Automatic annotation (TrEMBL):
UniProt main location, coarse: membrane
Protein name per Swiss-Prot or TrEMBL: Rhomboid family intramembrane serine protease
Membrane topology note: Multi-pass membrane protein
Membrane as UniProt keyword: yes
InterPro entries (alphabetical): Peptidase_S54_rhomboid_dom, Rhomboid-like_sf, Rhomboid_protease_S54
Family indicated by similarity: Belongs to the peptidase S54 family.
UniProtKB keywords: Hydrolase, Membrane, Protease, Transmembrane, Transmembrane helix
Gene Ontology terms describing biological process: proteolysis
Amino acid sequence: MFNKYYNYSIEEFKTLDNSKEIWGMSNTIGEVKNYVVFLEEDNINNLDISFIHNNYPYNVRIIRVLMVDSSKRNSNWHLMAEGFESDLIVLDEKDKKVLYYSPYNETLAAQIDHVLDYKKKLDHEKRINRSSKITIALILINIIMYAITAFFSGNILDSDVRVLIYLGANENTLISSGEYYRLFTSMFLHGGLLHLVLNMYALNALGPAVERAYGKVKYLIIYLIGGIIASISSYLFSGGVSIGASGAIFALLGAVLVLALKARTRGGKEMLKNILSVVAINVFIGFALPNIDNFAHIGGLVGGSIISWALAKKDF
């Protein structure tokens, strides 16, 4: 970014004892050639500047950027700043922000801040888009179960209902006869490839965000207990065979809804409106289209919201 936006060239510097190479950059403004060198506390006095002054007819200016970790008690950058008052910028590597700059270095300090803000945004976007290990594991379990279902069904696009029941689908008469495990196993079965793909897409979109907000253990509790509550809701209010991860996914949606509610006084009103819109649209689709277990969705949403609200007050 320094090269793209501010016309700097990358430079390589050496220490006086030739123990390591140091990176930096340079640019030319009028008759002045500026060298910006990024240094650590242990090598700020070990920079070889002998070759830098061979830049006739330019005047040379050397600006040291000291990279520190201000959280460390043994950091003595304040003392170092006093020794290099003329051209020094102090940069906190951990928090990625400028802590200090000497007079006449406001422009470069602002440029460094801009680059650091841009990098923080990129890192944040990468974290958002990166699936968590737990989400990946849940997706793999669902895919494996669908592969088993497809194998016994003899069809990769649609699942045989008899196979689904055999593998643990949510079926009222069987649950009433004592097969309560179906309230859990039905969460990992799907009626077709499209059903699986849509649910896994939603899980990948919501899962990492919920894990970051609540942590791994709470995330699993919300997903699994919320999914079981969704299955119980389906058992109580629906008939027929019920399968799919959508109840557990609605539990995650409930967790995000709780986050939005808690953040509504801190600029989260727009987020809350978006979440409520998603919930309303999905509930409408559930009632409007056939073969969608809307009671499981509602049960998962309510269950996930209640569990998330309770877990937000507990530490694991």
